[in-house]
């Protein structure tokens, strides 16, 4: 596939010099996160995969880069009055942390329904959190009102050339560490990260393909670039890139420099989060795993390439992470719930359990159902939750149960 022009048009709002200046500006104040080769993921996807661990920033996301680059360019008057943003995510924490560190007052407007953990984390970084409205749009509108009333400087999470230049520093480091990368796979929400990444990539002295990744439920930038009207709605694991309206500045850069955008489904996002924890021993949120999800979704597209992807954030709710891991175990056959019909007589459950023992399967939970069933009054349904080594092990268990004349069905996972 031919890549877009190697040099950014002069009319674009961000240049490679802007990114290099941002890198010097923020040097030493953000973590220069490692870029590591993943042998196992490379074998799994048929590519040569390099991961940029932006989830290891202090606030666990790359957003610090753009926020800090912007803060450092404010004049004394703007610093004294303070900054404001509307965000319930990583931008809020990154901006609050660095503003406090620099002695700049910060106000973050969040919707009233923002989870309390996000509110307390942002307050913990020194911000004044204002809860307003039931939606992000309402919070955003209120933040612009406060900006006008109190003379704050509004710092956009993505649609600002200073923010974009700051985000581009992650790719600058990535290509310094691994000069041989020929393909960048970058998550897209509002487009700040991929805008900076594409400016850096297209300024190199060799062609580098830049591919964006969006959740299928929120194809906003895809719609903008391809002139489609797919809906943007639903509960996605990749909430960090669940943006309904991409930026105008970012869209201009994406249209000029990004070669294509890949859409990924929820199952692939869940699989990617799970694999990164199991294989790389690193916690990544859904948006941060989107690059790997793209490699899993379209392996033929990336086969044989040297791919760099940015694990852009690690802020995932622990209960959600646990749910993702358990669902992945169920889909792989390592965790299952079997529904078995028994005769209601002494020893019935014992004989079933003996088969589990003979097959080396661990029983986790047993659920008896006598009342809420369509079976006759003396009928008995037992659901047994069990742990196996893999899908083949589970299949052998089911075969053994059926040979013993038991009616067995899988209680399907989501």
Automatic annotation (TrEMBL):
Cofactor(s) essential for the protein: pyridoxal 5'-phosphate
Family matches, as PROSITE patterns: ACT (PS51671)
ACT domain mapped to chain residues: 337-414
GO biological process, one term: isoleucine biosynthetic process
Residue ranges that the Swiss-Prot or TrEMBL entry lists as coiled coil: none
Source taxon at top rank: Bacteria
NCBIfam families: ilvA_1Cterm, PRK07334.1
Family designation: Belongs to the serine/threonine dehydratase family.
Name of this chain's protein: Threonine dehydratase
Protein's organism: Sphingomonas trueperi
